[in-house]
Amino acid sequence: MENNDCDYLEKQVKEEANSALELIIREGACRMLQAAIGNEVSEYIDRFKNEKDSRNRRLVVRNGSLPEREIVTGIGPLKLKQPRIHDKREDQLFTSNILPRYMRRIPSVDALIPALYLKGISTGDFSKVLESILGKNASGLSATNIVRLKRLWEQDYKEWAGRDLSLKRYVYFWADGIYFNVRLEDAENKRQCILIIMGTLENGKKELVSILDGYRESKQAWQEMLGDLKHRGLKEGPKLAIGDGALGFWAALREEFPETVEQRCWVHKTANILDKMPKSVQPRAKGHIRDMYMAPTKEEAIKAYNHFISQYRAKYEKACDCLEKDQDRLFAFYDFPAEHWRHIRSTNPVESTFATVRLRTNRTKGCGSRLATLTMVFKLAMEAEKTWQRIRGHQLIGKVIEGIRFVDGIIMKEAA
């Protein structure tokens, strides 16, 4: 047997083994999901087994199964059957948490589409890309269906962007401008960025507040964004806003919500300082910077700050100037609950959400609309929001809203 024949047979064996393994994985996943759905239905019926009508018949019973449904997943399509429940109680309807009605794709696939779009995949190439990820048998993800999905998401974005905010109360804002470089290739739109505001509600839950495109993070763009929040009913600004020092956001914030305290992001500030120092010095300097924002009290933080200035001023004046220009606004977090510090020292909530799609180096053949880009960022953020957790120490948010003073993270009376 020749070498070419051996190579061909070896390749064929590997492909067959991989196909068999994928089949086993899909079948196993299908059985597990089917069992989980069955258990969910059984538990629901059992929970109301004692509820009966006047003829002593149970009000919640099994009633066959719904038609088989194909769900697109990361390991390929899975065919599932969902048991049907007949709930005769007034205004009661069973909805599966595992397999909601009308769901045809798992949520991670819905997040995958906008992420790929922002990475530069054209609509016409989606089928090929998704086929390589989800398998050749993945259905419902043709170019036509992708376009239909995008239109639905655009409508969702428009409705969300115009929602009423009169009942909202945010205690913290995180603001950032994200440069995606997506699909907007004319000379003017190259300077466009996506402006994003996230907020913390009174119950400690983080949520997306606003997404809009702006021109180089200008004051005018941010002012339009903040003004729109007020126009839609937001009565009060946040107690604290966190952002990068270079943003036009601060000038706009001072006009729209002048009572809001400003906190500069330590992640951005650290990067900006180190960028003005040689690489050989950066590790030690980074440690000194960390000593500032990780100090247990503001007094110790200022000592670490002064030590940095005295140690590096002579050789690295620009780095020290970068630190000094935001001194007061770097340590604002000490006047808020210590339990919140890990959340309010940086814009990490925004950064982490868009880290995987922040930069895009290859442009696609055609340009897309600003609405399509905003929609994809919105959709990606909405998927991420489902996993966001309440901030630590959310019970203290009420104290912050009341204006109770904190010293080094502790309520003033306790501190005294």
UniProtKB/TrEMBL annotation:
Q: Does the keyword DNA-binding apply?
A: yes
The UniProt entry, under InterPro entries, shows: Transposase_mutator
The terms under GO molecular function for this entry are: DNA binding; transposase activity
Name the Pfam families on file: Transposase_mut
A GO BP entry: DNA transposition
Provide the alphabetized UniProt keywords. DNA recombination, DNA-binding, Transposable element, Transposition
As for family, the record states:
Belongs to the transposase mutator family.
Q: What does this protein do?
A: Required for the transposition of the insertion element.
Q: What is this protein called?
A: Mutator family transposase
